[in-house]
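FAQ: What does the model actually see?

It sees only this:
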Amino acid sequence: MIRYLLNWLGLGTLVGILSGTASAIFLALLSVATDFRDSHQWLLALLPAVGFGIGYIYHHYGANSVKGNNLLLEELYQSKNPIPLRMTPLVLFGTIFTHLFGGSAGREGTAVQMGGSLADQLTKCFSLDVESRRIILICGVAGGFASVFGTPLAGAVFSLEWMFNRKFRPRSIFPAFWTAFVAHWVCELGWGIGHTSYAIAEIAPHTLINLLWIIPAGIAFGLAARLFAETGHLVGDVFKKTISYPPLRPVIGGAIVAMIVFSTGAYTYIGLGIPRIMEAFETPLPWYDFLAKTGLTGLTLGSGFKGGEVTPLFFTGATLGNALSAWIPLPLALLAGCGFVGVFSGATNTPIACTVMGMELFGYQAGIYLGIACLVAFVFSGRGSIYSAQQVGWKKRLP
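And it is asked to produce this:
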């Protein structure tokens, strides 16, 4: 036991430093790129050209890095090939350029891929066996997620739940939590990178009728999660079937995104969309916001641009919860918060991690509402996931 603790204290610290530093660099660059794009909206016209550059580099030099998060899952399940170090700079700069030129994407996928890629480099350095390699990959995911969102508890739980394949490994628990906290401390305290603060201004009384009202909201969040996941997969399949040369796919996808945004003025839905997410907790918004973000994110990522899906899922869930407040007699901010984590839960099959994340972000007083929303959304989202390689035990038998 002592040897195990010392071993993973050391390895977890290394992975935490690497993933926390990578996230800090990423978040700093992403902030600069977002601010510059917001003040130079004409950059969106160059999105197709940038898409070709991203597609060309990934096609000719990316090797299996193009699989993204699915590569991490495949290696956890099968442990066949090392995750290439090149994944880190490729996804880092691919995501920055996607955001700089107006793509609709997130940041979780980038942080998780960087964390996993950097962590796996230690496999060879320390001659880790197959089981230890699985644990260090889990650590990489935990560190990346925790540091990019500032939620160490959720980062650890997410890595364990997301990569869970019907066989729980207790030996992964301590390394995942330790790495998540180290990465969070390195990013926030070491590098001084802050994170977005959210708040639910009013928590409804914990009465039976109020708790029951969360069930129809959770069903809506689950269906929205399913729509989000299937939209991304459908767009990706269509582009692969109709355009044989991969670098041309983001060219077409970028052109469609640019035309939609320029013709409708829908700048609200490009990039991360954090300002709109913040608004969802404060004031009623157009009911179609969640659909617009789903469509533009599906086009951006499905055609081959880089970035994560989780922040767009936050956007989708928060704005859907905001819209549901017109029919469900619960506080607007509470429904936005439940949607924020509920749609995320359904799309990633991680209801426990999403509940924990909600409590870290919004406070523990909302915990029971968040938990019900995440569980119901998880069930009603069906068997799908935004990660095609994800394997989920008993849920595979659901419709």
